[in-house]
Amino acid sequence: MQINPPFGYREIVPLQKDRKVRLPAPGEVPEFCRKTNAVPISYSEFGVASRDYPLAFVSTEAAKVYSPVAVLGVAGGENLFLRDGGWDPSVYLPAYLRRYPFCMARVTLNTVEQDDRLICVEKDALSEDGERMFDHAGAPLPRWLAIEKLLREYEADIERGREMCAILADYALLEGFTLQASVRGASVTFGGMYRVDEKKLELLNAAQHKTLIRKGIMGRIYTHLTSLDNFARLIARREASMPTPSRRG
Questions:
Q1: CA 105 – CA 60 distance, rounded (Å)
Q2: Could you give the CA distance from residue 70 to residue 89 in angstroms, rounded to a whole number?
C-alpha cells in the first residue's frame, strides 16, 4: 500500500486510535507554509479568501490539471502573511493549513488508486506529549469530532473544486498570465499562474453558460477576477516587509 502525501506534508501515516497527536498551538502554522508563495483553497473558500488574497489557478504542466490557490507572495518561497512566527491574525487562514497535521490521503494499492480516502497524520506530530483523539474504548473525543468534521467537509469541497477546474479547462477559459510590478524601483516578474479569460465567457453557448450558473461556478469566476486586484495589496505587503533604507547624513 502506498500513501501519497499532499503538498507540504513530509511523511504521513494512518491515524490510529491509540496514538496521541501534538496539535498546533494557537497561531502556529506548518513549517512548509513558511517557504511557499501559494496555498490551495477549496470551492467554498473563494468568497472569504478573496477578501485578503489574489486567487489564481496553477497547473501540472504534463497533465494540465488545474487547481485554485491563494497567492501568498510574488517570488519563489515567499510568504508575506507571516507575522511574529505565525499567520497574520488579521487575514483569513485557509482550511488547508487549519487541518494540519491531519489530512485525507489518496491510497494506491497494487498500482491502483483507491476511491476512498484514508485519514492520516503527519508522522512527526505523533507524540506521547500530545493529545488523545479517542478514549481508551476507541470512542471519539469532542476534539476529534470537530477535526474529523473539518477533514470530511474539506475533502468533499476539494472534489467540487476539481470539478470546477475541469469544466473551466474543458471550456478553454483559462489563460496564463504574469505579474509585473515595481517594488521600490526594482522590477518584479512573477508567472506560472492562470486566470479566467473574461472575453472567452462571451463566446460560450447557452448550455455552457447554464452549466456555469447552475453549478455556482460563474459566481466564483467573478470572485476570482475581482480578487486579482489584491495583487496591489500583496505588493504593498512586500514593500512594508522590506528594510527601510538608511539615510546618510
A1: 19
A2: 16
How high is the pLDDT of residue 249? 45
Q: Where are the domains of the chain?
A: 2-241
Do the beta carbons of residue 72 and residue 117 sit within 8 Å?
no
CB-CB contact of 220 with 164 (8 Å): yes
pLDDT digits (tens, 9 = 90+) for 27-72: 788 999 988 999 999 999 999 999 999 999 999 766 689 999 999 9
Residue 152's φ and ψ, nearest 5 degrees, are -70, -40
DSSP letter string over 149-202? HHHHHHHHHHHHHHHHHHHHHHTT-EEEEEEEEEETTEEEEEEEEEEE-HHHHT
pTM of the predicted structure, to 2 decimals: 0.89
For residue 145, give the 3-state DSSP assignment: helix
SS3 assignment, position 118: strand
Q: Given this model, what pLDDT does residue 245 score?
A: 60
* Residue 5 contacts residue 112 (beta carbons within 8 Å): no
141: which 3 cell numbers? 473525543
The tens digit of pLDDT for each residue in 205-225 reads 999 999 999 999 999 999 999
